[in-house]
C-alpha cells in the first residue's frame, strides 16, 4: 500500500469509518473514496458493482452496518439481517470482480459463541451457540467472514476479516437508547454532575468484565493489517486488557469529576460474565495499542463536552 493507492472506505461517517479516514489522512494517503449511506444503496447489487467498476479501488474497507442496539435486534431482525447480508455480499463480490488487491471486513465479537472460553481466540469461531438476541446480526457477520475465506480459497483474493473489541472515541453515539456502555456512562455521569444528583445507577452488579479500544487505535490496527504481506484471514483487534463495569464506572466518575455515589441495580441483567479477545496473533505481528483506557476516557469526555456546547 503506497501513498498513491486508491482506498475505498464504506461506512466512512461512522465511529470506526471516520477514525479510518482520520488515520489515512494523517498518513498522507490522499486518494481516498469515503462512502456513506448517501453515496449509494448497498443492497442494490448493480449499483454497488457499477460503483466499483467506476472507482476501481486498490484497497477496500467494509465498515457500514445496520444496527440499533438490543431494541432493534428484537424489533427489526429481518431488516438487520437483510441489510447487513446484502451490503457485505455486494461489496465483497464486486471487490473481487474489479481485482481489489486487499479488502478488510469488519466483523464483531458477537460472532463468537455466547459462552465462549476466555480470552477468545480466533479459532473459537463457530464452536458453540450464539447469543440468541443478536443471532441475525451475528449470523450476517459470520457469513461475511466465511465469504472472505471462500473468495480467498477459490479466487485467490486477499480478503481479511477483523473482530474488534468494543470501540469508543470521537464521533461516538451518546443516545442512551442505542449507545455502547462508555458513551452511555459518560453522558450519565456528566448529567448527574451538572444536576447535582446524589448518585448514578448502573445496570447489573458491576461484576462483568469487558474490553474497550480507542477508535483511533482500532483504525491504526486495521491499516497495519492492510500493510501486512502475510495473509491472516481472521484477526482479533483488542488491547489484551479487560475491566469490570464497576471499575469502568469508577474511572468515568473520576474522569467526569462527579462527586456523588455509584449504585448498582442488581435487579437488571448482567449479560455474559467476561468478553476478552485474545489479540495475541495481532500482537505477534508487531502491533500494540497506544491509548490507555484512562487516556481514552479523558479524550472521549473532552469531545463529549465540546459536542454538547
Ligand atoms: N463500534 C464498535 O464497538 C464495534 C465493535 C466491533 C465491530 N464493529 C463493526 O465495525 C463496523 C463499523 O462500526 P461503527 O461503530 O463505526 O458503526 P457506526 O458508527 O454505527 O457507523 C456505521 C456507518 O455505516 C453507515 N451505513 C449504514 N448503512 C449503510 C449503507 N447501506 N451504505 C453506506 N453506509 C451505511 C451508517 O451511515 P448512516 O448513519 O447514515 O446510516 C454509519 O455511518 C461495523 O461493521 C461494526 O459491526 C464495531
Overview of this protein structure:
It catalyses: GDP-beta-L-fucose + NADP(+) = GDP-4-dehydro-alpha-D-rhamnose + NADPH + H(+). One of its GO terms (molecular function) is NADP+ binding. Keywords: Isomerase, Multifunctional enzyme, NADP, Oxidoreductase. Its EC number is 1.1.1.271. The protein is of the alpha/beta class and 309 residues long. It has 2 domains: 7-168 and 210-241 and 276-292, NAD(P)-binding Rossmann-like Domain (Rossmann fold), CATH 3.40.50; 181-208 and 242-274 and 295-308, UDP-galactose 4-epimerase, domain 1 (Alpha-Beta Complex). 43% of the residues lie in helices and 16% in strands. It has 10 helices and 13 strands. It has helices at 15-26, 45-55, 69-75, 77-97, 135-155, 181-194, 215-227, 245-256, 280-284, 293-308; strands spanning 7-10, 32-35, 59-62, 102-106, 159-164, 166-168, 199-203, 209-210, 212-214, 234-237, 243-244, 261-265, 274-275. Strands 2-1-3-4-5-10 form a 6-stranded parallel beta sheet, sandwiched between helices. The protein has a 3-stranded mixed beta sheet with strand order 11-8-13. Strand 1 (7-10), helix 1 (15-26) and strand 2 (32-35) form a beta-alpha-beta unit. The longest helix is centred in the N-terminal third of the chain and has 21 residues, at 77-97. NADP nicotinamide-adenine-dinucleotide phosphate binds at residues 10-11, 13-17, 35-37, 42, 63-67, 87, 106, 108, 164, 166-167, 180.
Amino acid at each position: 500500500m503506497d501513498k498513491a493507492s486508491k482506498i475505498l472506505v464504506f461506512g466512512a461517517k461512522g465511529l470506526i469509518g471516520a477514525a479510518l479516514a482520520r488515520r489515512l489522512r494523517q498518513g498522507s494517503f490522499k486518494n481516498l473514496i469515503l462512502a456513506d449511506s448517501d453515496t449509494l444503496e448497498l443492497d442494490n447489487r448493480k449499483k454497488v458493482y457499477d460503483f466499483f467498476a467506476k472507482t476501481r479501488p486498490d484497497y477496500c474497507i467494509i465498515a457500514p452496518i445496520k444496527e440499533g442496539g438490543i431494541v432493534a435486534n428484537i424489533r427489526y431482525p429481518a431488516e438487520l439481517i437483510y441489510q447487513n447480508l446484502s451490503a457485505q455480499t455486494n461489496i465483497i463480490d464486486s471487490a473481487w470482480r474489479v481485482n481489489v488487491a486487499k479488502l478488510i471486513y469488519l466483523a464483531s465479537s458477537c460472532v463468537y459463541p455466547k459462552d465462549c472460553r476466555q480470552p477468545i481466540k480466533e479459532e473459537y469461531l463457530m464452536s458453540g451457540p450464539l447469543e440468541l438476541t443478536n443471532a441475525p446480526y451475528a449470523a450476517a457477520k459470520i457469513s461475511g467472514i466465511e465469504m472472505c475465506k471462500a473468495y480467498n480459497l477459490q479466487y485467490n483474493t486477499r480478503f481479511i476479516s477483523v473482530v474488534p473489541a468494543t470501540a469508543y472515541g470521537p464521533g461516538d453515539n451518546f443516545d442512551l437508547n442505542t449507545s455502547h456502555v462508555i458513551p452511555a456512562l459518560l453522558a450519565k455521569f456528566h448529567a448527574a454532575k451538572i444536576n447535582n444528583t446524589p448518585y448514578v445507577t448502573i445496570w447489573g452488579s458491576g461484576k462483568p468484565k469487558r474490553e474497550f479500544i480507542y477508535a483511533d487505535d482500532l483504525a491504526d490496527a486495521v491499516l497495519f493489517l492492510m500493510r501486512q504481506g502475510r495473509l491472516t484471514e481472521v484477526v482479533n483487534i483488542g488491547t489484551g486488557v479487560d475491566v469490570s463495569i464497576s471499575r469502568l464506572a469508577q474511572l468515568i466518575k473520576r474522569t467526569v469529576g462527579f462527586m456523588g455515589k455509584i449504585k448498582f441495580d442488581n435487579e437488571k441483567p448482567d449479560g455474559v460474565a467476561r468478553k476478552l479477545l485474545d489479540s495475541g496473533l495481532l500482537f505477534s505481528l508487531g502491533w500494540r495499542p497506544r491509548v490507555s483506557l484512562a487516556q481514552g476516557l479523558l479524550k472521549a469526555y473532552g469531545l463529549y463536552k465540546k459536542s454538547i456546547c
